[in-house]
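Late entry, written up from scratch paper. The run itself happened at the end of the previous shift, but nothing got recorded in the book at the time, so transcribing now.
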Amino acid sequence: MRDSNNPEITTVQPILEALAQGDCQQLAVFLSEQSILEYPQNTSNATLAFVGRHQGVEAIGRCLNKKSELIDIRAYDIKNSVFDGDRLTAEIKTSAICRETNQSVTLDELLVVQISAGFVQSIKGYVDWSPLLARRRSIQSQQIINEIENNNLAAIKSLVESGLDVNVRDAKTGLTALMMAACRAQVETVQYLVDHGADIYTADSKTGATALHKACQGQNSTIVKILTDAGAFIDAVTPTMGHTPIMDALWYLAPDVVKHLVQCEPNLNTTTHYGFSLWDHLDYETNVQSTDTGKKIMAEIRAALESYQENCQKRIKSQTVMAATQKGDSDCVHALIEKQEDIESVYPHVNTFSDGHNPLIIAARDNHLDIVRLLVEAGAEVDVFDWVFKGYPLHKATYNGRADVLKEILKSPKITEAVVNVQGQINGYTPLIDALWHGFEECAQILLEHPLCTLGHIAHDGKNEYDVACQVFGTTHPLTQKIKHRINGSGQS
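Output as recorded:
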């Protein structure tokens, strides 16, 4: 540091050189204890240890040392420097290596230096740190994992808000940050991660478990509710063991979690990959409990599961229109409609072909034309899909090539353009594409002639109606040509 007897600064070049090189000793000559160095801080650069405001020789030195620990400067170019007596501005382009990743970066900086009485009063460096941040992102994202382990939500918020990847995985376990927080019962952290885009559907890279599976291991029903409210799959199956979340909940002795999960209507009739049913799993885990507490917990879990199973059977028995529809008994359906029985009941999840279906979907699927007609006339909803295949009543008709069923559904006053052209959630196929896919020309013609039918819908495989028609019927078929002309004529593609 210069003392007060030193002469005025006669050249600005040494200051620029010192700043460009990050040379603390050379810069100290021009500093006082009132000197300030600032790299403005924001949410995107907050993970850089040297950004912020630093006052005094030692603080500025620490800042530059931290910067050099991260950035190995290889070359720099100072240009457009202007000095008007007390204010120095310059542009610096720096070529450097990010020491953490050993990758090259180029940084553009605008320097503004205020000089008073021969000393640097303040330095502001406006730098585009994005190239450096991009190089560090994969490594820095691991800090989120570290802070999950420390249960430090404040630090996690700072890291996420700086732009780091909320879906980072722990390199050792394959778990995402959300899975770790869920498994460790960190309620506020789980809520924060979900609110900020954490993927609730992805699986861990070791066993294929989801965040909901890990939440069940963590035994916290509040976290389980956060995940199910966000749309987590209640019956997600791990590809290794074949466990659903509720199997893990009973495995880890979490009765409150089980009680919440049964409210979400899970399927209790799935089988693990090692051949156990849920009930086998329950029996096995009950038998290996050596303490009275463990046995009591398993009894509580069994009671919750049996109560839910009993409720499912009661629902099935109460669904009279559903039962008659499954049997194809149109006279019975007619009589039940006259008695104003429920025509929109949804079959519970009990591992059958009808899970999550309503009567109209089943009637359309099973080709019960008279029942379809009765239900449509009774005002059955047509804007509805089944839980298993995610298909609408129109999909069921065209998939099976039933032009007569299709016509009856299209008579519904509830038919809209959205329903006629709805894309299935499994493959993105519309009812028309389903008809084309299976070669049902009559069904395709009925839909093409319907005033609400539109073309140019792109399915998950990237195909539209014309692509599927070409594949099934060939390019010269009249139906294919009709679709081509419709698409070209309407500007749809």
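Residues 1-10 have pLDDT under 50 and may be disordered.
(Scratch paper discarded after transcription.)
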